[in-house]
Design brief:
Urease, subunit C, domain 1, 2 domains, eight-stranded mixed β-sheet, binds N-(iminomethyl)-L-glutamic acid
Length: about 425
């Protein structure tokens, strides 16, 4: 693979010598940058960077390709550590129901929501599902995403869960994105188990998890631990069964209520627990003492018109905070990490530095990529955004709908 040299970078952002753990509390407000910088990528990895005044002349002579980034910034490609990007069709009819006043839970209770997506997915071929997902993959790359976590959970039968996970695997193979796959059979109770929740929990434990593991289709297991969805006891059994097959835990926690999901995630050493709209001091104290990242999804809070998670309180508690889009057809039909950063600034009072840290390094850690992605560090993947000309770092979340990306470089290759 060829070498790529970027020179005259206005600001090289998120420069770190080493990154062993996510940033916590006050550390999140510090974002190291080098002004007027260069960066060299070789064999898909960052091999050197520094100030232009120190640029070795042989880098210029030997580079296969040189990009002049005058007036632009270079930052790590975004890591979107929580998405449901593989789904069939869309659910704008429920959007209208929401405008007319129905809540997310009311729509779900009528057989809409996740079950609606499951019906559509069942009728959609694997090939077509892949085609639809790749349109979204293309879209998120234009927003600057370079690594993405994708969950199953619209199958709700063994066959359809495997179909989703195979599509996720194909995205990993055929797109330039770095992809992490999560099995989420415990996303909702399917119609056939409406009055027999135990039956579905057993199907997940006895059939789905072994089948997923047999094809090595997922690295993580997730559970929607929430009133009206999976109870603590059910979620606990499912995560325990996943662990036996080597699946690492992550939890949809405290989205609609104080569900116990945070404590459960910590019990299973989850890399992250997601949502946390309902998290009080008790939950935050548990998180503070753990290695688990609070993964906030402000796009879903926005779309469902709810109260935002109290990010400032989490940061005062010295908790690592990550941001993700939660791209899905029900609670956030949007895969734009920059918009999440803007919401986090406006609605959760995070600073520009905090949101960039949350969307790059901490989100990389939240999806098990902290050692290879999320910062400008020697040896990490050369997965980078070259911005359009922008005046300041603050401009990134401020100009929330202005396109940011001029080039996206993934593993050293220019993909946009
Ligand atoms: O994280 N809460 C559960 N899962 C998604 C929504 C999925 C859907 O409604 O289709 C979420 O918000």
């Amino acid at each position: 693979m060829s070498s790529l040299l970027i020179v005259n970078i206005g600001k090289l952002v998120q420069v770190r010598e080493r990154t062993h753990s996510p940033l916590r509390g006050a550390q999140m407000d510090i974002l190291p940058v080098i002004d007027n910088a260069f960066l060299l990528s070789e064999q898909g990895k960052i091999s050197a960077f520094g100030s232009m005044s120190e640029l070795p002349q042989d880098f210029l002579r030997n580079a296969v390709k040189v990009i002049d980034a005058s007036g632009r910034m270079v930052l790590p490609a975004f890591c979107d550590c929580h998405t449901h990007l593989v789904y069939a069709g869309s659910r704008e009819i429920e959007f209208i129901d929401k405008i007319r006043g129905l809540s997310y839970q009311e729509i779900a209770a009528r057989g809409g929501g996740i079950l609606n997506s499951a019906r559509l997915l069942h009728e959609t071929s694997e090939e077509e599902l892949f085609r639809q997902a790749m349109v979204r993959v293309e879209e998120v790359m234009h927003f600057g995403t370079g690594a993405i976590e994708i969950k199953s959970g619209y199958g709700l039968t063994t066959e359809d869960e495997l179909k989703m996970l195979r599509v996720i695997r194909r995205i990993a193979e055929e797109s330039p994105l770095t992809v992490k796959a999560t099995f989420m059979g415990a996303h909702a109770f399917p119609e056939r188990y409406r009055d027999n929740h135990e039956g579905y929990v057993r199907e997940i434990i006895e059939e789905m998890i072994p089948a997923v593991a047999a094809e090595d289709l997922a690295e993580y297991i997730d559970v929607f631990c929430e009133e009206g969805f999976f109870s603590i006891e059910e979620s606990d059994r499912i995560l325990a069964a996943g662990r036996k097959f080597g699946l690492k835990a992550t939890v949809h926690a405290n989205q609609m209520s104080v569900s116990g999901g945070v404590e459960l995630g910590v019990k299973y050493d989850a890399a992250s627990v997601s949502h946390l709209e309902f998290a009080g001091d008790e939950q935050l104290e548990v998180l503070e003492k753990s290695e688990t990242i609070a993964n906030l999804l402000p796009g879903a809070t926005f779309f469902l018109n709810m109260e935002y998670p109290d990010a400032r309180r989490m940061l005062n508690y010295d908790i690592p905070v990550a941001l993700a889009t939660n791209y899905n057809p029900g609670s956030c039909p949007c895969g734009d990490m920059k918009f999440m950063m803007a919401l986090a600034c406006m609605k959760m009072k995070m600073t520009s530095e905090e949101v960039i840290n949350a969307a790059t390094l901490n989100s990389a850690f939240a999806m098990g990529l902290g050692e290879t992605h999320g910062s400008v560090t020697i040896g990490k993947a050369a997965s980078l955004i070259i911005t359009r000309p922008i005046p300041s770092l603050e401009f990134i979340p401020y100009a929330f709908s202005t396109p940011l990306v001029e080039n996206l470089i993934l593993d050293g290759k220019i993909v946009i």
